[in-house]
Each structure stands twice: as structure tokens, then as C-alpha cells.
Design goal:
10 helices; 14 strands; about 375 residues; 6-stranded antiparallel beta barrel; about 45% helix; Elongation Factor Tu (Ef-tu), domain 3
Length: about 375
Amino acid sequence: MQGPEQLLRKASLERLSSPEQLDMIMRVTSPLGWVALVAIGVLIVAGIFWSILFDLSVKVDGRGYMVRGESVREVQALTAGFILGMEVETGQIIEPGTVIARLSLPDLENRLATARLLLADMEASSRTQSGTIGSLQANLQAQLARLQAERRQKEELVKKGLLTSAALSSLDMQITNIQSSLLQSQIGRDDRGFSVEGKRLEVKELEAKLANDSVVRSPFGGRVVALRAGLGQQVRAGDPLVNLEAEKEPLRIVGFVPIASGKMIQPGQDVQIAPSFVKPEDYGFMIGKVVSVSTLPATLEEIRRIVANEALAREFIDLNPFEVVIEPIPAPETPSGFKWTSSAGPPLEVGSGTDCMVLVVVEKRKPISFVIPTVKQTLGLT
């Protein structure tokens, strides 16, 4: 006797083997599945067309610095001292001879103070000694007058034969001694006068030097792009106080790219520039063109001359870089005056003295060209 499970199984087999069941259409997949398959197929075809028709840019990245003219120029302190005040501000356009800063010069100020004290002492001493010497000279002159009168009387007696000439010799010796004393006192008085005048001249020269050296003037004109010193800061002779750029020269970017990538860069290639104060995700990149590329890596001195900033120059030299000169593409309709990958770029002026990132487009390739070598290698065709 068969159980329930066996009866159900037998009934199912009979239905499946029925001729009517063979005429029914077998459902392979659902309509939703077909939609997914078609979508995947469309994406694959679109990807193939995209990889064939469109280009991908191969870029070399580096760092850059915006300048006007050949380089940024420094105005330096002429002597050591302390900053009393900076007389210019960033962005200001100045003419040659403009006062940049005022300095306190302790060494020179101390020398001047010492010279003034010595002059005051010498003048006081000279006045005292001048009075003493005056009294001495008056006494000597009175003695000289008395002796000269006495000699004239005795000379008459000698002429009359009443006295011998020996009496005149004694008077002549006394007169000569007094005249010598008068001469020596006058010489001493003149020497002291010359010493005082010499010290006065020294004081005047120190005053003129202090007035000149304590004011730093720019030897050339331009736009102030950076203040290198501040109030109260100690500076040495030769230390930079401000950086200047040529005001009428066009803006350009000097890029520094690693030596491994430098040989890939050629004049005319497109460049994307991201100033340090601009977020590329918000405003895109400034667009430029490569003008020239150095044939040898830049030296620290060359970089220092361009950026006029020791710390930044040492950061750039760590790349062992090639120097790439880039000109941004002008666009007067944008706030910055230059063309951007976005419609207008940032609502800011872009000026020199700005650190930036540069991306040089060294090659444009079809996306499929990246895939073919991998496929060949996978299939063993290489």
C-alpha cells in the first residue's frame, strides 16, 4: 500500500509527462531581468565608444610661483638695527626713492651720544683753559711791554756811552723767553680749538650718517608683493625688508617640476594652475601655456632670485626641479583677468608672490589605449 507522499509524487510525474504540458512556453527570465541586461549592454557599448572617441590627459604635477618680470626684487637693510616702522604695505605701487622702513641703529646712536658728551666736555674745558691762558698771556704781554720799554731806554744810554752793550744782551734774552712763552701758549690754545672743531665735525658726520642709514629707501620702483620684516624686528645688513615686482610686466608662473618629469614637458603644452588660495573643486583651474623649459635642473641661487624667499626656495630645490615658464591665458571678462576651467573662476584678483600647484598636460590618449596592452598581455599576444 502506497503512502501519501508516494501518491503525490506519482501524480506530479503524470502531469509533467502529459502532452498538453509540452506545448506550454518555458519562462527563462522575468521582464525586469531583461531590462537590466539591456542597460548593461548599453553601458558597455557607451564605454567602448567613449574609450575610442574621447581623450584622457596625462599630466605632470609640480609647484609654481607667480611673478611679474624676470624675478621678484628685494629691498634690503643697509645696516644692522631694529624696525621702528614699515612705511609701505602689500599691494602698494612705489617709485624709486620711496621710504620703505625706519630703523633704530643702537651702535650708531651710542657712538653719536658718546661723541656729543666728549664735545661738551671739550668745549667746557676749552672755555676754562681759554680764560686761564688769556690771563697768562696778558701778564706775559705786560712783562714784554715793560722789558721792551726798558731796552729802548738802555739802548739810548749805550749810544751815549753811559752803558755797555752787555746790559742789552740780558734784556734781549728775557724778551726772547717771554715771546717764546706767548707763542707756546697761543699754539696750545689753537690746538685745543682745533680739537674741539674736529669733534664738532665728527658729531655732524655721525648725525648725517644716522639720518641717512636709519631711513631705508627703495632703489627701484614697482609693486610691493610682500613685507619681509615687522615692527620691532631685529635685522642685519643685507636682510630683506620688502619684495617688489615690476608693476607693468605681465604676470607669469615659474613652475618647478621633478627632474624625472621635466623631459616630458615641451613649449606649447597646456597647463592647469591652482593658486594656493583657490580651491579647484570650487572654481577649477587657471589655464596657461608652457613658454619655455630649462635644459638643466635649476640651482638654489636661481630659485632664490625668482621667489626672493629662502624658505620657499629650499622647498622647491628639494624637487631637484626643471624650471618651466608658463603664461596664463588672459580673459578680461573674469574677475581675475585670466581664463579658468570654470566659467569665471574665483571673484578675486590673482597677483604675483603667490605659491601655486601646476599640472602640465604632456599627452592626450584614448582610454582604450590603456586597456589594449593589458588585454594583449592577458591573452599572451605580447
